[in-house]
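Q: How would the structure tokens look for this protein?
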Amino acid sequence: MARILVVDDEEGVRSFLADTLTLSGHDVVESPNGEQALQEVQRSQFHLMLTDLKMPGMDGMELLRSARMQQPDLQVVMLTAHGNVEVAVEAMREGAHDFIEKPLPSPAALRAVVERALEHRALRNAVEAAAPPPIRLSWGAPAMGPVVEALARVAPTQATVLLLGESGVGKEVAARTLHEQSGRKGPFVAINCAGLNAELLESELFGHERGAFTGAAARKRGRLELAEGGTFFLDEVGELAPPLQAKLLRVLQDRRFERVGGTQTLTADVRWVAATNRRLEEAVAEGSFRQDLYYRLAVFPIKVPPLRERKEDLLPLARTLLQRISAELGRPGLRLSAAAEAAIEKRAWPGNVRELANALERAAILSSGQELEAAWLETMGGPQPASASNSGPPTMEEAEREAIRQALDHCGGNRRLTAEYLGIGLRTLYEKIKRYDLR
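A: Here is the predicted structure in token form.
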């Protein structure tokens, strides 16, 4: 059962809506105009509001904006006269979930629209409830100062942000920080563009209709719908196949999309954040990445520096990661010995945060006590001095080449396993193997 507010200046229409929904088991409140409806919203909580678009005084569009300011989670379905579909679509851009054309459909059609809106609300709440608590890192290194400042400046705007940096530097943490500072009420939803093939990725992004392809036994809402009102994070965006690049460009330009196999146009009220460890300018020059999409994504680029440039963050980061690992393993209170901390500070960590987290998790599993010793980290190929020479720290290219070489050795030369181990796309790995002349 849901609590539903029905708003229409025509008594007959209002009664039809209220009676149909009451018979379906919902708690329905009626309002004859926008002003009274807004008072109802200010007095009590509602799951859903059905409102006419054209009413004397406060119209449906103004009511939509005012009501969602009071209750950001409120789902809104617009009633509109035949021929005003463009206006209804505009209302969906403002936050309405769907619209119904007059003359009103059958009770069954009305109930279906209401059920979809309530299901969407429930799914979005489930995503928020199931999401693990974000890692909040101490970014105290001087190299992170410009990043922290840039995130704070761009967060309140609607600008699309492109996070740049090596694999594992913490780009998703930066994206979550941006979302938290943005003030957006919807959830943070992420997808890794390198983790799925093109067909599955399209379905995950946009959803699909029943029968859209073999195995599509029911309608599925995509992550774009679940991210309504929030932030959508496209990780490894440089791995997108060309057909999906074109579809993503359309969403970024028009904020509209269709589910796979569907004809209904949906709106995407999301803040876009993308991330990549590739040099997208080179990909554009090579023709593997669309130039127009690149410019849409790179409205506000931010580069996240690697760990070797953030030595001050190493120990706070390691302690934060170990605290989370301790909780996941059911062994609270795990801590680093003084020797382990010293060993961590000596290493360059070419695999960045991901390599550090993996080393800590392995050490925690191997350790039988509460204190992790340096030996457990070193045994698993963990912290070692980056170089015994006095030639200074390695360049980014040198460190990246060495990280890939070590990963290839670790995975026995299997390139697919190596790509998964490094957290990058297989195509990116092939390009880097060729660039660094690795055999």
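The radius of gyration is 26 Å.

The CA atoms of residues 208 and 259 lie 5 Å apart.

Upvote if useful.
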